[in-house]
Amino acid sequence: MISVIIPVYNLEKYIKTCVNMFLNQTYSDFELIFVNDASNDNSLEILKSFDDPRIKIFTVEKLYAGGARNFGLKQAKGEWIIFFDGDDICKDTFFEKMVKKAQDTNSDIVICASNEFIEKKQKFSNHRAAHLLKSIDENLSGNLHNIKNTSLIELVEPWNKIYKKDFLISNNIKFPEIKCAEDLPFSCEVLIKADKISFVKDILVSRRIRKASVSFKADNNWKNYFKAYKMADEIVFEYKYFDEIKEAYFDRKINTFAYFYKKVGILNKIPYLLKFISEIKNSNTVLKANKYNILNYLF
User: How big is the CA angle at 112 (ends 107 and 115), to the nearest 5 degrees?
Assistant: First the structure.
């Protein structure tokens, strides 16, 4: 019923916990598709140590997370798809509650509430209000336009969702094969094209925040964030009801660039700043208002 697709790159510290977390789910009709993307640690050996027919292991070479997920989708036999990161955390009822909602509502996507696990402090954080679905009625289902909640465009991570495989395949929705931020254009396209989105307001997933994650290495990857948003722009700007979501979309976009500007190293400050200023100018032009000012984000 469910195919869980997990890209693996040097996750020896987390992958055993990840597998056991899935095997201890209260729902058992699933397959785990691990796509080992050129790991050079013991991740692959740890995966092979498990003896369970639901575990399927594939090895690819430098596809990055997006390409690994696309590869996994081609192997998937399930009616429903979950894309998960091997270092993240989920409750043992994650599969059960998500597939039940998906089946009961016949939705293209189901989104659950989520929070963050701060590894350094060893504690959970609920500071991202949109991810807690506080402004969402759990009994509500519909497309992005009918739901009329602009905070949904902030929910661009793939791991707090379950997707109908036929929906992804029929719309030819894939992850771009870039080094990071690949989930942004993918999720924007999913949210815009879905005929029916439903919700589970329980916090079933926690994103692990750790310094070693590719997503947080701004110095090496900052160009990918601009590239990802350019891809997302091409999708979002063509949306029939773009005017309804544009302010929320640009708020997320500019705040993302501001966040990474503070993290990028001194050698990249100037080129990053020039790109950031250009994005602010373009956003203000589309909004037809001087909503954003670079001076607000520099200090």
Answer: 160
The set of residues, in sequence order, having a beta carbon less than 8 Å from that of 233 and lying 6+ positions away, is none
Separation between Cα atoms, residue 220 and residue 7, nearest integer Å:
20
Q: How many CB atoms lie within 10 A of CB 226?
A: 16
Report the C-alpha gap between 161 and 106 in whole angstroms: 14
| pLDDT, tens digit, 9 for 90 and up, residues 194-222 | 999 999 999 999 999 887 655 555 566 88
Residue 125 to residue 36: CA distance in whole angstroms? 29
Question: How confident is the model over 137-183, as pLDDT tens digits?
Answer: 999 999 999 998 988 998 999 999 999 999 999 999 999 988 888 99
H/E stretch holding 103 reads helix 94-105
Helix (H) or strand (E) holding 226: helix 218-236
CA 8 to mean position of chain CA atoms: 15
Q: Other CB atoms closer than 10 Å to residue 63's CB: what's the count? A: 19
Which residue shows structure tokens 């891809």? 231
Does 60 have pLDDT greater than 90? Answer: yes
Position 298 confidence tier, pLDDT thresholds 50, 70, 90: confident
Lookup: tokens for 33: 């598709």
Q: What is the DSSP secondary-structure string of 250-278?
A: HHHHHHHHHHHHHHS-GGGHHHHHHHHHH
- Which residues make beta-bridge pairs with 8? 36
Beta bridge pairs of residue 89? 206
